[in-house]
Amino acid sequence: MAVSRCQRLSGALVQELLATVDTVLFDCDGVIWRGDQAIPGAPEVINALKSHDKRVFFVTNNSTKTRAMYAEKLGRLGFQASEEEVFGTAYCSAVYLKRTAKLDGKVYLIGGNALSQELQRVGIQHVGSGPDPVTGSQNDWANVPLDPDVKAVLVGFDEHFSYMKLARALRYLDDPRCLFIGTNTDTRLPLEGGRAVPGTGCLVRAVETVAHRKAQIIGKPNHFMFDCLASEYGIQPSRTLMVGDRLDTDILLGSNCGLKTLLTLTGVSQLEEALEHLESGSEARLCLVPDYYVDTIGDLLPALQG
Amino acid sequence: MAVSRCQRLSGALVQELLATVDTVLFDCDGVIWRGDQAIPGAPEVINALKSHDKRVFFVTNNSTKTRAMYAEKLGRLGFQASEEEVFGTAYCSAVYLKRTAKLDGKVYLIGGNALSQELQRVGIQHVGSGPDPVTGSQNDWANVPLDPDVKAVLVGFDEHFSYMKLARALRYLDDPRCLFIGTNTDTRLPLEGGRAVPGTGCLVRAVETVAHRKAQIIGKPNHFMFDCLASEYGIQPSRTLMVGDRLDTDILLGSNCGLKTLLTLTGVSQLEEALEHLESGSEARLCLVPDYYVDTIGDLLPALQG
Prior knowledge:
2 copies of one chain form a homodimer.
Chain A: E1 7-8, H1 12-18, E2 23-26, E3 33-34, E4 37-38, H2 42-51, E5 55-60, H3 67-76, E6 86-88, H4 89-100, E7 106-110, H5 113-121, E8 126-127, H6 138-142, E9 150-155, H7 163-173, E10 179-182, E11 188-190, E12 196-198, H8 200-211, E13 216-217, H9 224-233, E14 240-244, H10 247-257, E15 260-264, H11 271-280, H12 283-286, E16 292-294, H13 301-305
Parallel strand pairs in A: 1-16, 2-5, 2-14, 5-6, 7-8, 7-9, 9-10, 10-13, 14-15, 15-16
Antiparallel strand pairs in A: 3-4, 11-12
Helix pairs in contact in A: 4-5, 7-8
């Protein structure tokens, strides 16, 4: 099939595309659900893909849930899914520190329960989670006690982010041997109704600024999450479809890893943005253009049921 | 006198330079004091400059003190100084909002007592100062109550910086008419003994990331602080000397405003950095090269007493 750019995926083209694909990767927020509501038709689409022998995985930058929490939510919203199909940044960050970085020490964690649990599951100890309000004065902040076993700072979503956490991160990261990992750089976490809350990217940028260093980012569009999945399951990139709602994370990940890409318009990015990238003629911006788009993944259902 | 680049200022050259100068601007931290200790000889140098009829001003990015607090500290450490000679970012931010932006409304302040007091002094009301710990869940953070009179967000040094403050700033700054001001972008605040605490730049970057906007920065190297001072006192840039310890704020401000510049080596920047900029031959980097340097401003004392 000839490569097309930003083509509406409907009718016979759906079956034509699926015949060239073994594996489908779905982003979650804005793609298969919004907040606590499944996108209409999404469970049926994913369950039908599986009954057509497609392998399905859920690939999300959100670090606030463990694999088990995602599997529970997926099941509750009507998706057939198991823990092993979920690749979130909480899980992948723990895998990165354990397998890739071969961390021998503790983590100073700016992050919540899910990150905490995934680190524990791979046997990595951590300090730092929970509230850390400021006390004392400048000299106290500059001399906060450190845990000498900490060999990495991991920054994920943390609603208890505070000035004291920045002060501790500064001191740990002043040692150039201390690893510096960020789960993802999404600047906002969109909620239902158009509202949003600050995303992990804000916290990562603050820590990068104080550390005078860049974090190694685990999440999309960096290829680590796909590598992690591909190495466990023997995925062939050219026969894999990435479905997402963000050009700068999902679609760019697909381009970076040689996957086919499908933009769904139920989340962050608009069709107009994709078309602007396409029409710019800039090679760098073409990486942000999906092969296909749909208004909602529910639009795939007729072809799968036909 | 011919312009020289990065020349040691000593001996007869001190008097030669001072003959061409009416006004001397001093940065504070790392220049005239470190923490709560005056740099040896600094009070005598500044007092002698005044007795030689030079006008002296104190120009600092630090937003944690009001003009009155600075005057008190200066006096306590032996400097002859009055409030009117102090141009800190707490005062200048209030002046900017009042005179330049002609703000008609309240400020959402991420900042401490000094900013709070300087805003009050110019008659600007504000909300937001003090601790703001997280409560509730995502939907609560996305729907935090807003003060409808807030027309500007001001970010300065705030040891109570928290996730909730980011969430509120996001909502205020989603209105494109809401002004967005940062006091300064220093990434760290150096203390005595080589230690440091996170600087306002970390907080400004976090808010810029969530807001998808850049803040208007009041502090050095932006020229607003010098404009503020020059308009009040009728300063002639070419007959003004800026003395500082940072190439990227103090010396760059001097270059940006057409001042003579003197680097003192008792603070952040090293002579080697200045020489690397000089030898790079890059036009952009030449702005970071001081005209002169001294090991400490105490070195100027013999020439002033001679």
